[in-house]
Amino acid sequence: MEPNFVSYKEWISENLPFALRVDCLNFHVFPHCHNYIEFNFTVKGQAKEKINGMEHTLKPGTFTLLFPHHIHEIETSPENPLLMFVGSIRIESFYDRKGDFLALTELLSKAAFDKIPYNYFNEQVTEEITNILNFMLKELSDSRLWSTLMFKSKLTELLITFDRNRSNSSFTEVNQTLCQKSGVWDIITYVSQNYYKEISLQSLSEKFHMSIPHISSSFHQLLGENFHRYLEKLRLAQACDLLLSTDSSVLDICFETGFTSYKTFSRVFSKNLKLSPTEYRKLKLNH
């Protein structure tokens, strides 16, 4: 099943670059990806989560940090609902070199390419993170004087606590070199935010002043798939979302998600989902 694509516009305010809520999940969260950074922290219950096809157990103390290249789904049961904090951060707020979070750019750049994007924390760290998140939630909901600044400071504390206690051995020296020195993260971020535009390895090479072979090999090393497949995945995910959430015509959705012809869109869609776009819409809406 191809993932749906979730935009930050669905629940992050235009005025603030972040959001935080508590979810109680007793249903299947289908595969999806985001154009923002998401973190989940489980406080009660148990479920199965798949991230880019890799399955693990969500249980109290599990902290997951998700980036645009992560596709994830959660399988829960009504008998054992999952209670978790869910936070999101508009990606440009962390990767704007002039922004408030400049000092955390390196931290997130490392975490973005961890082979295992989740961590299990012990009771002491779990309690510490829970207290930070409850404080953040209160600041966000109360809208008191300096609440935004206080929220940012606690968000910084949260991510530092996460980084100090996480298992980061999977972030290899190769990934660190690619991430910090070659600017590959900037390219991946750009593609994730501009998938609907005409993007090619040639255009990326010209925009970021890197060779095509270097960009191509970096995508494969860091994401486990080539540039064209990653771009195709993002476009298909957004197309699935628009087919189910709007009344736009299939042709409009085709061009809105970056495909240059309906023939190509229909062929790629059918190849990956085993249904035409129209059949997919009818099947899902009638399910």
UniProtKB/TrEMBL annotation:
InterPro entries: AraC-bd, Homeodomain-like_sf, HTH-like, HTH_AraC, HTH_AraC-typ_CS, RmlC-like_jellyroll. Gene3D superfamilies: Homeodomain-like, Jelly Rolls. Keywords: DNA-binding, Transcription, Transcription regulation. Residues 185-283 form the HTH araC/xylS-type domain. One of its GO terms (molecular function) is sequence-specific DNA binding. It comes from the Bacteria. It holds the Pfam family AraC_binding. This is AraC-type DNA-binding domain-containing protein.
